Sequence to fold (160 residues):
Amino acid sequence: MASFKIRLITPNDAEKIVMLMKQHWGSTRVVSRGRVHCPEKLPGFVARVDHKSVGLLTCNINDKDCEIVTFDSASEGLGIGSASLEAVRKVAISTGCKRLWWITTNDNTHALRFYQKRGFRLAALYPNQLEKSRLLKPEIPLAGVDGIPLRDEIELETTL
Fold:
């Protein structure tokens, strides 16, 4: 099994983050709860195996809340997701955050399982939020994983 390292994002990572976002998500912008985020400008973590980036987590700390904005792992089963989540949890606690939260779409059943297994709970449902999000980011597709219509945002949270 390959070993990995988790490190803080540096300014030198911005170009790679832009490329990853375009490749995996078709855009450099992320929309959650009606706000547009530019992940290359956010703090977070990069996971690496050997000299290759295999994971990215970006976050936005606002007052006592830490939102996970992006979370990608190209290598499942190595523990990269869990280690990245633990790294952001530690940073959030150290900066005085009381809540760690994340938004996903109604089709992302894989992520819903992942987060709930790690102590997150369903906190809110925002019906038809993606209609509003498409006004800010028109490239959001109409259907997602397994052809499920993309309509709603789901908020998950854990207290710190």
Observations:
- Strands lie at 5-8, 30-32, 35-37, 44-49, 52-62, 65-73, 99-105, 121-126, 153-159.
- The CA atoms of residues 30 and 71 lie 11 Å apart.
- The radius of gyration is 15 Å.
